[in-house]
Design brief:
The chain is mostly helical. The protein is about 70% helix and about 0% strand. Helix 1 packs antiparallel against helix 2, helix 2 runs antiparallel to helix 3 and helix 2 runs antiparallel to helix 4.
Length: about 110
């Protein structure tokens, strides 16, 4: 369910952007935000799915002879890429949605 719901949202947003491109409608920052939100949901849902599978399989799933080990590693690496770190993506999305300039630092920072 995690994977299918994330895939549906990601495809929906990709189709919307593709339709704009095919109609020669200019892209807006909102298009980027919607794609980023869908990507964040996809990343988080993939991580949830693998975590659930790991709970079912246990430590045996981490043997390198098992495909699950690769899935676990790949999902974890997807959350470590600097520009896709969930916390940074959330901050960028929040700033955009609330009209805060991207270069403004949090007041607690």
């Amino acid at each position: 369910m995690y994977i299918e719901s994330a895939r549906a949202l990601l495809y929906q947003e990709a189709k919307a952007v593709t339709a704009k491109a095919e109609s020669n409608i200019p892209f807006t920052p909102d298009d980027s935000v919607r794609l980023s939100m869908a990507g964040l949901v996809a990343t988080q849902n993939a991580q949830k799915a693998v975590d659930r599978l790991f709970g079912i399989r246990g430590a045996h799933g981490l043997f390198e002879t098992d495909d699950f080990e690769r899935y676990y590693r790949d999902v974890r690496m997807g959350t470590l890429v600097a520009n896709q770190t969930p916390g940074l993506v959330r901050e960028w999305l929040g700033k955009h949605l609330f009209g805060i300039p991207a270069d403004i630092q949090p007041r607690w920072g």
